[in-house]
Design goal:
The protein is α+β, with helices and mostly antiparallel strands. It has one helix at 19-31, and strands spanning 52-57, 69-75.
Length: 76
């Protein structure tokens, strides 16, 4: 994941979602593959160009997206 304002890498993301959403997301990943951010050395990672906005469900009362599940996503 990257910070939306700077594009700087901020950490990896685990995505929990339905089969249909995973299939749509994987298709989008394949169509929009991009280069790794500067300074990143993670050869086994699939980098994707920015442009996805996700709708997630997460634990109530948490500031962070802990135990989040992807409900849907759209192009920015």
């Amino acid at each position: 994941m990257a910070d939306r304002t700077t594009g700087r890498y901020v950490g990896s993301a685990f995505i929990n979602s339905s089969h249909a959403i995973r299939e749509r997301l994987w298709k989008r990943v394949q169509e929009h593959a991009g280069p790794a951010p500067k300074g990143m050395m993670r050869p086994a990672t699939q980098w994707v160009k920015p442009g996805i906005i996700g709708r997630v469900k997460h634990l109530r009362g948490e500031e962070d997206l802990r135990h989040a599940s992807l409900q849907d996503f759209r192009e920015e």
